């Protein structure tokens, strides 16, 4: 495993163009964004990259071996040129697209046709909608009437257009008015509008633009859309986190809250004492999938792990960052110092060579999350709030009660299955003993009464008649007891 050399030809080319190897600007506005361009991610050699390509080409998502192998490559470092292909395999984009009735291209045609008929395209619509935010005295209904767009759709289009300017404004695909940036913004606009139509119940929520932008940095447009669907719809990943009720995100922050409380009680109590709630920093972490970290190579390594393990990876990253910041946090006695440190993780902690090895050493098991869920449900049942001053809505409590019942039913079924397996195992053992005893009785009976007794056996029987009697009577008594036990232990269907 070799680290990428800072003097490589690829890096020199990006520096001469004013952007780093991940596409972020090296000068100007990036200072406000706190981006670090000194990357320390490992670069696999050509043999390892070839082996990874072979694994991708014969990928089987249901195979435990494939997933273990991809995790091995993640520890070594996924080459940026192969990252999109790895994500595509882990999210099973092809299957999702093939089994869905939703057609991305048809959706785009439905959005474009009324605009084209009126001489608009998505670029001019982007500019027109964005202008509404700068000119409050203008009436937005001219656009509504011109494009025959409903009021609800206009609100979504307006919010998406505004968020495009806030999503990674220093990345070359979204920065400024260059042809590449205009096309990048249009792609992101189309992906987000398509998802709003795919799931009208949620539509669009602030923060989705950051996730869509990261996907477009690594995947073609239509694949980025289906990757967004997989992330936002699958319970393994971010399903429900962007629901406008905020029930799911509060619940997941509650799980993290309990994990931190039980793993680092001293640090947890210190953060609580200074007045910082888990919601204040964990919610932005989860909703942005840690894209606010200053080192983009670390962000990409985190996303690799999220694609593999889902929400468990987010818990692991949060606990790792808290652990690395613990010495600094314990020295701080003021909320005004603690919260900014958690929201803006410093480079010396976020750099790949520090954060990612510590992340791989941090484990969060599914059974731990189940236990934390149970604690949250118990606190909700007692009427107490698991996040300090944040109250639970009735719908959240009802949902968690249903989850608690499901969990109890699952535990009962598992216990019944284990009891049945144990009973079957006892019956199998006793059946085997019965078979052995039958064979022993037959053999001993033949040895005593048969014509083929050897002289040594006859001598032993003559010298010790009690031994011969026991050989005749003991197997019969054992057989009788075994048969009685067998009749009582045979499992009933």
Topology overview:
Blueprint: E1 2-3, H1 9-17, H2 30-33, E2 42-43, H3 46-57, H4 64-76, H5 80-91, H6 93-99, H7 104-117, H8 122-134, H9 141-147, H10 151-166, H11 179-198, H12 208-218, H13 221-233, H14 247-263, H15 265-273, H16 278-288, H17 296-309, H18 311-331, H19 335-343, H20 347-350, H21 352-360, H22 366-381, H23 394-449, H24 455-463, H25 465-489
Antiparallel strand pairs: 1-2
Helix pairs in contact: 8-10, 10-11, 11-12, 11-13, 12-13, 14-15, 14-16, 14-22, 17-18, 22-23, 23-25, 24-25
Query: Structural class of the helix and strand makeup?
Result: mainly alpha
In angstroms, what is the radius of gyration? 33 Å
β-strand amount: under 5%
Number of helices: 25
Report the end-to-end length measured between terminal Cα atoms.
57 Å
Across the major sheet, the strand order is 1-2
Number of strands: 2
Textual characterization of the structure:
By secondary structure, this protein is mostly helical. It is 71% helix and 1% strand. The longest helix is centred in the last third of the chain and has 56 residues, at 394-449.
Characterize this entry briefly.
This protein has 493 residues and is mainly α.
């Amino acid at each position: 495993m070799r680290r990428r050399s800072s003097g490589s030809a690829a890096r020199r080319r990006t520096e001469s163009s004013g952007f780093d190897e991940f596409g972020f600007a090296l000068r100007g506005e990036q200072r406000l964004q706190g981006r670090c361009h000194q990357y320390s991610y490992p670069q696999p050699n050509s043999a390892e990259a070839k082996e990874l390509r072979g694994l991708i080409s014969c990928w089987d998502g249901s195979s435990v071996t494939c997933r273990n192998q991809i995790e091995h490559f993640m520890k070594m470092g996924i080459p940026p040129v192969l990252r999109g292909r790895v994500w595509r395999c882990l999210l099973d984009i092809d299957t999702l697209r093939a089994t869905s009735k939703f057609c991305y291209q048809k959706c785009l045609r439905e959005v474009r046709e009324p605009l084209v008929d009126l001489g608009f395209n998505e670029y001019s619509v982007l500019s027109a909608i964005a202008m509404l935010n700068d000119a409050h005295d203008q009436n937005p209904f001219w656009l509504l009437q011109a494009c025959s767009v409903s009021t609800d759709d206009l609100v979504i289009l307006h919010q998406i257009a505004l968020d495009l300017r806030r999503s990674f404004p220093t990345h070359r695909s979204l920065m400024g008015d260059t042809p590449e940036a205009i096309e990048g913004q249009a792609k992101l606009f189309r992906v987000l509008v398509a998802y709003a139509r795919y799931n009208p119940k949620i539509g669009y929520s602030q923060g989705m633009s950051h996730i869509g932008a990261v996907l477009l940095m690594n995947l073609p447009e239509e694949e980025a859309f289906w990757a967004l669907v997989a992330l936002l719809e699958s319970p393994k990943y971010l399903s429900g986190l962007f629901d406008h009720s905020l029930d799911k995100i509060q619940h997941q922050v509650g799980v993290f809250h309990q994990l931190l409380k039980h793993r680092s009680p001293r640090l947890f109590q210190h953060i609580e004492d200074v007045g910082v709630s888990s919601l204040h920093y964990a919610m932005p972490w989860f909703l942005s999938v840690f894209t606010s970290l200053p080192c983009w190579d670390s962000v990409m390594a985190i996303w690799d792990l999220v694609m593999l393990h889902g929400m468990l990876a987010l818990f692991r990253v949060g606990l790792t960052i808290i652990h690395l910041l613990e010495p600094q946090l314990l020295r701080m006695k003021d909320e005004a110092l603690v919260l900014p440190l958690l929201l803006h993780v410093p480079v010396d902690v976020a750099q790949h060579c520090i954060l990612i090895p510590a992340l791989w050493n941090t484990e969060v098991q599914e059974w731990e999350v189940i236990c934390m869920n149970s604690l949250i449900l118990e606190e909700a049942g007692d009427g107490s709030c698991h996040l300090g001053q944040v109250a639970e809505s009735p719908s959240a409590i009802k949902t968690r009660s249903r989850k608690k019942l499901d969990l109890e039913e699952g535990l009962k079924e598992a216990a019944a299955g284990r009891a049945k397996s144990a009973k079957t195992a006892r019956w199998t053992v006793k059946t085997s003993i019965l078979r052995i005893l039958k064979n022993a009785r037959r053999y001993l009976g033949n040895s005593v009464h048969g014509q083929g007794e050897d002289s040594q056996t006859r001598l032993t029987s003559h010298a010790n008649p009690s031994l011969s009697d026991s050989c005749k009577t003991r197997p019969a008594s054992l057989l009788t007891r075994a048969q009685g036990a067998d009749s009582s232990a045979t499992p009933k269907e």
